[in-house]
Amino acid sequence: MAQEIPYKIYLEESELPTQWYNVRADMKNKPAPLLNPGTLQPATLDELSQVFCRELAEQELNTTDAYIDIPEEIQSFYKMYRPAPLVRAYCLEKALGTPAKIYYKFEGNNTSGSHKLNSAIAQAYYAKKQGLRGVTTETGAGQWGTALSMACAYFGLDCKVFMVKVSYEQKPFRREVMRTYGANVTPSPSETTAIGRKILEEFPGTTGSLGCAISEAVEVAVGTEGYRYVLGSVLNQVLLHQSVIGLESMAACDKYGIVPDIIIGCAGGGSNLGGLISPFMGRKLRGEADYRFIAVEPASCPSLTRGKYAYDFCDTGKVCPLAKMYTLGSGFIPSANHAGGLRYHGMSSTVSQLYDDGLMEARSVEQTAVFEAATKFARIEGILPAPESSHAIRVAMDEALKCKETGEEKTILFGLTGTGYFDMVAYQKFNDGQMSDYIPTDAEIAASLAKLPQVD
Ligand SMILES: *Cc1c(COP(=O)(O)O)cnc(C)c1O
């Protein structure tokens, strides 16, 4: 008889990954290099090192080493909140009446409430090792800023966070968590940077955007002695650190003979998705196994499903390196009624290349359908999911319901990236029946894409 699968699979400490996996090493078509925004030539290690920590810049450029050691200090920090459980969603399966087997990897078991801590601690570690005084960053919904504040507190680094103004005002408790961990939080756009002042002059009363907050954070990092800029998603180095999600998931699956048919992740900048799928994708790329991978994005910010694969700016102020990615244009801002996160205009260049090569699928979902799934999941499985994570829940449920129709016993694995305690304004809107869907028109997307930089 097959081994009984427990509700929750926790790896032993001795089974935890000691190396990250770099999927680029196994990709035949490598993701396109970052370009220097001034010269439009591939950014060199020295150029990247002016913005990012040296060792992180090296990781950013490393397309050849499949495995990179996780430093001991990071491994021991991971042990404070990892392993993350791989949960068999027995209750959800029963409620849906599906023959499918559903698993989720839960990354919300830490104070920051999301997977972002996996990369925050790595980035803070390399900054400390380089002898820096501090780091700057942006945060939208606040999960990344919180994770980075925790990591900086651990290593005694200064942490300056530019928080998108609308979130700063709507999520005062997020801000207070960051300050409790010692971070300095500024609403963006702000008067403290040249780019912030310029944006405020051009768009008085703007409530800010991620792209704008990134520009401010980069300006301060580059202009302040002993500081570098760190980013919580999109970059190759972040996907590398997040591979810990996929490595643990794969070890847990292998241990119990679980073979996923479909692996699903929500996609904002692509870091949790990239991290979850990387090791499985490696097997697919090496011809050892096959899986279906599905990226799920909001219908209001559909970079993979409706964007263009092109070089674009990563920020509004155009100070960051350019990345080749599926993008909606760096000026694209999702409609104000969009409540579910995942609002970045572009997508990780690694995920973009894998998608362009036909190695994975993408799907967009509307937010009312996402919150329906979130509410159902909360009531059945107990966890109050982050709106971002709920995009993956939606599609996992849809796939399980398809199995109910066909009678197929597929195995579905999805990433449950975090909890939604700070997203109650969005839940309130949904509960009050005030949430609506806005899908950008082709003309709106075309107008934004018309402003893409000309790079050949
Ligand atoms: C930031 C965040 C995401 C999206 O970011 P990715 O880089 O696409 O993973 C998803 N879920 C949660 C809970 C987040 O905080």
Q: How would you describe what is shown here?
A:
- This protein has about 450 residues and is α/β, with parallel strands linked by helices.
- It has two domains: about 30-70 and about 115-230, Rossmann fold, CATH 3.40.50; about 80-115 and about 235-450, Rossmann fold (3-Layer(aba) Sandwich), CATH 3.40.50.
- It has helices at about 45-50, 55-60, 70-80, 90-95, 115-130, 145-155, 165-170, 170-180, 195-200, 210-225, 235-255, 270-285, 305, 350-355, 365-380, 385-405, 425-430, 440-450, and strands at about 10, 20, 65-70, 85-90, 100-105, 135-140, 160-165, 185-190, 225-230, 260-265, 290-300, 310-315, 320-325, 360-365, 410-415.
- A seven-stranded mixed β-sheet has the order 1-4-5-15-10-11-14, sandwiched between helices. A four-stranded parallel β-sheet has the order 8-7-6-9, with helices on both faces.
- A hairpin with an 8-residue loop joins strand 12 and strand 13 (about 320-325).
- It is globular and about 60 Å long.
- The mean pLDDT is about 95.
- Pyridoxal-5'-phosphate (PLP) binds near residues 233, 269, 270, 342 and 389.
